[in-house]
Amino acid sequence: MPVTAFDRLACPLDGQPLTRQLHAWQCPQGHSFDIARQGYVHLLPVQQKRSKDPGDSKAMVAARQRFLNAGYYQCIADALNEAVLPEMASGAACLDAGCGEGYYLRQLGQAVPEGIDMQVIGLDVSKWAVLSAAKQDPAPSWVVGTNAHIPVPDSSLDRVLCVFGFPVYDEFARILGPAGRLVMVDPGPDHLRELRDIIYPSITERPAGARAVPESFQVVNRETVCETIVLEDASSIEDLLAMTPHLYRAPAEGLARAAELTRLQLTLDVRIQVLELTEQT
Questions:
Q1: Is the pTM of this model over 0.90?
Q2: Taking residues 234-251, what's their average pLDDT?
Q3: CA dihedral in degrees (107, 109, 113, 119; nearest 10)?
Protein backbone atom coordinates (compact mmCIF):
# COMPACT_ATOMS: atom_id res chain seq x y z
CA MET A 1 0.00 0.00 0.00
CA PRO A 2 1.50 3.40 -0.96
CA VAL A 3 -0.40 5.19 1.84
CA THR A 4 -0.03 4.22 5.48
CA ALA A 5 -1.13 5.92 8.68
CA PHE A 6 1.25 8.38 10.32
CA ASP A 7 1.61 7.11 13.89
CA ARG A 8 3.96 9.58 15.60
CA LEU A 9 1.23 11.38 17.49
CA ALA A 10 1.82 13.60 20.51
CA CYS A 11 -0.37 14.20 23.53
CA PRO A 12 -2.27 17.49 23.13
CA LEU A 13 -2.04 18.09 26.89
CA ASP A 14 1.68 17.67 27.57
CA GLY A 15 3.37 17.02 24.21
CA GLN A 16 4.58 13.56 25.22
CA PRO A 17 4.59 10.81 22.57
CA LEU A 18 1.43 8.76 22.28
CA THR A 19 1.48 4.99 22.01
CA ARG A 20 -1.41 2.98 20.62
CA GLN A 21 -2.88 0.49 23.06
CA LEU A 22 -5.61 -1.50 21.30
CA HIS A 23 -8.51 0.99 21.26
CA ALA A 24 -6.79 4.11 22.63
CA TRP A 25 -3.71 6.30 22.37
CA GLN A 26 -1.88 6.86 25.66
CA CYS A 27 1.01 9.04 26.83
CA PRO A 28 3.54 8.31 29.63
CA GLN A 29 1.65 10.66 31.96
CA GLY A 30 -1.46 8.51 31.71
CA HIS A 31 -3.56 10.67 29.39
CA SER A 32 -5.68 8.41 27.22
CA PHE A 33 -7.61 9.14 24.02
CA ASP A 34 -10.10 6.63 22.68
CA ILE A 35 -10.03 5.56 19.05
CA ALA A 36 -13.47 5.87 17.50
CA ARG A 37 -15.12 2.90 15.83
CA GLN A 38 -14.44 4.55 12.45
CA GLY A 39 -10.70 4.71 13.24
CA TYR A 40 -10.08 8.38 14.04
CA VAL A 41 -8.90 9.86 17.35
CA HIS A 42 -10.07 13.05 19.06
CA LEU A 43 -7.05 15.10 20.20
CA LEU A 44 -8.78 18.43 20.75
CA PRO A 45 -9.07 19.05 24.51
CA VAL A 46 -11.79 21.36 25.70
CA GLN A 47 -9.32 24.13 26.59
CA GLN A 48 -8.26 24.32 22.93
CA LYS A 49 -11.81 24.68 21.62
CA ARG A 50 -13.32 28.02 20.68
CA SER A 51 -16.86 26.65 20.74
CA LYS A 52 -18.74 23.55 21.80
CA ASP A 53 -18.79 22.13 18.27
CA PRO A 54 -16.00 23.92 16.33
CA GLY A 55 -15.36 23.84 12.60
CA ASP A 56 -17.66 22.86 9.77
CA SER A 57 -21.10 21.55 10.65
CA LYS A 58 -22.41 18.13 9.66
CA ALA A 59 -24.45 19.72 6.87
CA MET A 60 -21.46 21.67 5.49
CA VAL A 61 -19.33 18.53 5.48
CA ALA A 62 -22.00 16.53 3.65
CA ALA A 63 -22.37 19.27 1.02
CA ARG A 64 -18.60 19.44 0.50
CA GLN A 65 -18.38 15.68 0.18
CA ARG A 66 -21.05 15.60 -2.53
CA PHE A 67 -19.59 18.55 -4.42
CA LEU A 68 -15.94 17.45 -4.36
CA ASN A 69 -16.71 13.82 -5.12
CA ALA A 70 -18.56 15.02 -8.22
CA GLY A 71 -15.15 16.10 -9.57
CA TYR A 72 -15.69 19.84 -9.90
CA TYR A 73 -12.34 20.64 -8.22
CA GLN A 74 -10.35 17.86 -9.89
CA CYS A 75 -8.05 20.36 -11.60
CA ILE A 76 -7.11 21.80 -8.20
CA ALA A 77 -6.39 18.35 -6.78
CA ASP A 78 -4.23 17.49 -9.80
CA ALA A 79 -2.20 20.68 -9.47
CA LEU A 80 -1.81 20.10 -5.73
CA ASN A 81 -0.49 16.59 -6.35
CA GLU A 82 2.05 17.95 -8.83
CA ALA A 83 3.25 20.42 -6.20
CA VAL A 84 3.50 17.85 -3.40
CA LEU A 85 4.99 14.73 -4.96
CA PRO A 86 8.24 15.88 -6.66
CA GLU A 87 11.37 14.99 -4.66
CA MET A 88 9.29 13.05 -2.13
CA ALA A 89 11.24 10.05 -0.88
CA SER A 90 9.65 6.76 0.07
CA GLY A 91 8.57 6.80 3.71
CA ALA A 92 7.95 10.54 3.74
CA ALA A 93 5.24 11.87 6.05
CA CYS A 94 2.50 14.26 4.90
CA LEU A 95 -0.07 16.22 6.93
CA ASP A 96 -3.18 17.90 5.57
CA ALA A 97 -3.73 20.70 8.09
CA GLY A 98 -7.44 21.36 7.78
CA CYS A 99 -8.23 18.21 5.83
CA GLY A 100 -12.01 18.60 5.75
CA GLU A 101 -13.65 15.38 4.62
CA GLY A 102 -10.38 14.15 3.16
CA TYR A 103 -10.87 14.76 -0.56
CA TYR A 104 -7.39 16.13 -1.30
CA LEU A 105 -5.60 13.43 0.71
CA ARG A 106 -7.58 10.75 -1.12
CA GLN A 107 -6.61 12.27 -4.45
CA LEU A 108 -2.98 12.51 -3.33
CA GLY A 109 -2.96 8.88 -2.23
CA GLN A 110 -4.19 7.77 -5.63
CA ALA A 111 -1.42 9.77 -7.34
CA VAL A 112 1.52 8.40 -5.32
CA PRO A 113 3.87 6.65 -7.78
CA GLU A 114 4.35 2.91 -7.58
CA GLY A 115 7.22 1.97 -5.28
CA ILE A 116 6.78 5.04 -3.05
CA ASP A 117 5.28 4.69 0.40
CA MET A 118 3.87 7.75 2.16
CA GLN A 119 2.75 8.17 5.76
CA VAL A 120 -0.35 10.33 5.86
CA ILE A 121 -2.29 12.22 8.52
CA GLY A 122 -5.35 14.42 8.17
CA LEU A 123 -6.18 16.96 10.87
CA ASP A 124 -9.33 19.04 11.21
CA VAL A 125 -11.06 20.90 14.02
CA SER A 126 -14.46 19.60 12.88
CA LYS A 127 -15.34 16.17 14.24
CA TRP A 128 -17.90 15.83 11.45
CA ALA A 129 -15.23 16.37 8.80
CA VAL A 130 -12.85 13.85 10.34
CA LEU A 131 -15.67 11.31 10.75
CA SER A 132 -16.53 11.65 7.07
CA ALA A 133 -12.87 11.34 6.06
CA ALA A 134 -12.37 8.20 8.15
CA LYS A 135 -15.47 6.56 6.67
CA GLN A 136 -14.30 7.20 3.10
CA ASP A 137 -10.66 6.13 3.49
CA PRO A 138 -9.33 4.12 6.44
CA ALA A 139 -5.67 4.20 5.33
CA PRO A 140 -4.51 7.60 6.71
CA SER A 141 -4.39 8.63 10.34
CA TRP A 142 -7.38 10.90 10.97
CA VAL A 143 -7.28 13.29 13.92
CA VAL A 144 -9.64 15.87 15.38
CA GLY A 145 -7.35 18.73 16.37
CA THR A 146 -6.37 22.32 15.74
CA ASN A 147 -3.67 23.91 13.60
CA ALA A 148 -2.79 26.08 16.62
CA HIS A 149 -1.62 22.98 18.54
CA ILE A 150 -0.84 20.23 16.04
CA PRO A 151 -0.47 16.96 18.00
CA VAL A 152 2.72 15.67 16.36
CA PRO A 153 6.39 15.91 17.43
CA ASP A 154 8.85 18.56 16.24
CA SER A 155 10.39 18.05 12.79
CA SER A 156 8.28 14.98 12.08
CA LEU A 157 6.69 15.95 8.73
CA ASP A 158 8.09 16.16 5.21
CA ARG A 159 5.04 17.85 3.66
CA VAL A 160 2.31 20.01 5.17
CA LEU A 161 -0.73 20.95 3.07
CA CYS A 162 -2.94 23.92 3.83
CA VAL A 163 -5.77 23.91 1.29
CA PHE A 164 -8.16 26.88 1.57
CA GLY A 165 -7.29 26.74 5.27
CA PHE A 166 -6.06 28.81 8.18
CA PRO A 167 -2.25 28.62 8.36
CA VAL A 168 -0.42 28.79 11.67
CA TYR A 169 3.10 29.33 10.40
CA ASP A 170 4.89 28.91 13.73
CA GLU A 171 3.32 25.48 14.15
CA PHE A 172 4.04 24.51 10.56
CA ALA A 173 7.68 25.51 11.03
CA ARG A 174 7.86 23.46 14.24
CA ILE A 175 6.57 20.23 12.74
CA LEU A 176 8.40 20.38 9.38
CA GLY A 177 11.71 18.60 9.05
CA PRO A 178 14.82 20.36 7.67
CA ALA A 179 13.97 19.55 4.04
CA GLY A 180 10.22 19.79 4.54
CA ARG A 181 7.84 21.77 2.38
CA LEU A 182 4.61 23.63 3.06
CA VAL A 183 2.13 23.67 0.17
CA MET A 184 -0.46 26.44 0.33
CA VAL A 185 -3.63 26.61 -1.77
CA ASP A 186 -5.54 29.90 -1.69
CA PRO A 187 -8.31 31.49 -3.78
CA GLY A 188 -7.27 33.99 -6.41
CA PRO A 189 -9.12 37.26 -7.14
CA ASP A 190 -11.53 35.67 -9.64
CA HIS A 191 -12.30 32.48 -7.73
CA LEU A 192 -16.07 31.85 -7.89
CA ARG A 193 -16.55 35.41 -9.09
CA GLU A 194 -19.81 34.66 -10.91
CA LEU A 195 -21.37 33.30 -7.73
CA ARG A 196 -20.13 36.23 -5.66
CA ASP A 197 -21.55 38.65 -8.23
CA ILE A 198 -24.96 37.06 -7.73
CA ILE A 199 -25.12 36.82 -3.95
CA TYR A 200 -23.50 40.13 -2.94
CA PRO A 201 -24.62 43.65 -3.84
CA SER A 202 -20.94 44.45 -4.41
CA ILE A 203 -17.80 42.37 -4.00
CA THR A 204 -14.51 43.24 -2.38
CA GLU A 205 -11.67 42.68 -4.78
CA ARG A 206 -9.12 40.15 -3.55
CA PRO A 207 -5.41 40.89 -3.99
CA ALA A 208 -4.09 39.69 -7.35
CA GLY A 209 -0.94 38.17 -5.84
CA ALA A 210 -0.49 35.08 -3.71
CA ARG A 211 -0.84 35.17 0.07
CA ALA A 212 2.09 36.86 1.82
CA VAL A 213 4.25 34.52 3.89
CA PRO A 214 6.39 35.24 6.97
CA GLU A 215 10.17 35.55 6.88
CA SER A 216 10.53 32.08 8.39
CA PHE A 217 9.51 30.63 5.01
CA GLN A 218 10.74 31.18 1.47
CA VAL A 219 8.77 30.54 -1.71
CA VAL A 220 10.34 27.95 -4.01
CA ASN A 221 7.50 27.67 -6.51
CA ARG A 222 4.25 29.41 -7.44
CA GLU A 223 1.49 28.29 -9.77
CA THR A 224 -1.90 29.62 -10.84
CA VAL A 225 -4.75 27.29 -11.69
CA CYS A 226 -7.56 28.81 -13.77
CA GLU A 227 -10.41 26.81 -15.23
CA THR A 228 -14.09 27.19 -16.02
CA ILE A 229 -16.62 24.70 -14.69
CA VAL A 230 -20.37 24.45 -15.19
CA LEU A 231 -22.81 23.41 -12.49
CA GLU A 232 -25.75 21.88 -14.36
CA ASP A 233 -28.31 21.59 -11.57
CA ALA A 234 -29.66 23.45 -8.57
CA SER A 235 -28.45 20.85 -6.07
CA SER A 236 -24.80 21.33 -7.06
CA ILE A 237 -25.15 25.09 -6.71
CA GLU A 238 -26.77 24.60 -3.32
CA ASP A 239 -23.94 22.30 -2.21
CA LEU A 240 -21.29 24.80 -3.31
CA LEU A 241 -22.94 27.53 -1.30
CA ALA A 242 -23.39 25.26 1.71
CA MET A 243 -19.72 24.27 1.82
CA THR A 244 -18.41 27.85 1.79
CA PRO A 245 -18.58 30.74 4.27
CA HIS A 246 -20.71 32.60 1.70
CA LEU A 247 -23.79 30.81 3.03
CA TYR A 248 -23.43 32.77 6.27
CA ARG A 249 -21.95 35.97 4.91
CA ALA A 250 -24.27 36.70 1.99
CA PRO A 251 -27.45 38.72 2.54
CA ALA A 252 -30.82 36.99 2.34
CA GLU A 253 -31.60 38.67 -0.98
CA GLY A 254 -28.44 37.24 -2.54
CA LEU A 255 -29.12 33.76 -1.25
CA ALA A 256 -32.63 33.97 -2.66
CA ARG A 257 -31.22 34.84 -6.10
CA ALA A 258 -28.85 31.88 -5.88
CA ALA A 259 -31.71 29.56 -4.91
CA GLU A 260 -33.43 30.34 -8.22
CA LEU A 261 -30.46 29.17 -10.31
CA THR A 262 -30.54 25.87 -12.17
CA ARG A 263 -27.26 26.32 -14.05
CA LEU A 264 -24.12 28.31 -13.25
CA GLN A 265 -20.82 28.75 -15.09
CA LEU A 266 -18.00 29.45 -12.66
CA THR A 267 -14.37 30.52 -12.75
CA LEU A 268 -11.90 28.57 -10.63
CA ASP A 269 -8.91 30.75 -9.83
CA VAL A 270 -6.43 29.30 -7.34
CA ARG A 271 -2.90 30.19 -6.24
CA ILE A 272 -0.56 27.37 -5.16
CA GLN A 273 2.67 28.17 -3.33
CA VAL A 274 5.40 25.75 -2.29
CA LEU A 275 7.39 27.02 0.69
CA GLU A 276 10.49 25.87 2.53
CA LEU A 277 11.90 26.96 5.86
CA THR A 278 14.26 29.89 5.45
CA GLU A 279 16.78 28.54 7.95
CA GLN A 280 17.29 24.84 7.43
CA THR A 281 18.35 22.93 10.52
A1: yes
A2: 93
A3: 150
